[in-house]
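Much of our argument rests on the idea that a fold can be written as discrete symbols. Part of our work consisted of pairing the sequence of a single chain with a tokenised description of its backbone. We regard such an encoding as a compact summary of how the chain folds. The amino acid sequence and the backbone structure tokens for this protein are reproduced below.
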Amino acid sequence: MNEFMLKYSWTSFIRMLVLFLAAWFIPVAVAKASSLENLAQSLTKIRGEVEALQTELDLEKEKHASRITALSSQLADLSVEERRQKTAIEKLEHSLAKLSEASLQAEQSGEQLKPILLKVLAAYKHYVLTGFPFKIEDRIKAINTLEDNLTNQLVDPNKAVNQAWALIEDEIRLSKENGLYQQTISLDGEKVLADVAKLGTVF
């Protein structure tokens, strides 16, 4: 009888232990499964955000590279234009220097000097018309006035040489000056007064 009771008690204990362990492990397993699922969802969301940010970063890199390429091209164009302007100014200086020397040393009369000066003024006018677009009307007006005075014998050719030299010196100074100026520009077919920034021969 005692042996039977002992076996019964032991069997009951084992059953209770199994039930207890089952009651403890099952919720833990369910909780762990739920946590793993939440973690997987979080990782998926984070991965999506990272991919979106990477795509955005790649696009910004491409835009930046395009801007750098465009700026480099513009800088190269400006450098070429600046060299062209400097070369044109040097040619004008050379022509006028020769003319000044001729006016001082040569024994030719004023009438012989006039066509040479008119030729130099024509070259100067072409330089202004094809050069950087800064106050072109004012600069051309000064040349035309000198040409008219010379043609109509209102100024001595030797004095006209000095006046032409002064215009060239103003042109050289203008090519080196930086500043903010007002000038009339054409906008949609109409002339308007605008503020322009000038860096040497570059706008």
Q: What stands out?
A: The longest strand covers residues 178-187. The chain is about 80% helix and 10% strand. Confidence is low (pLDDT under 50) at residues 1-8, 194-203.
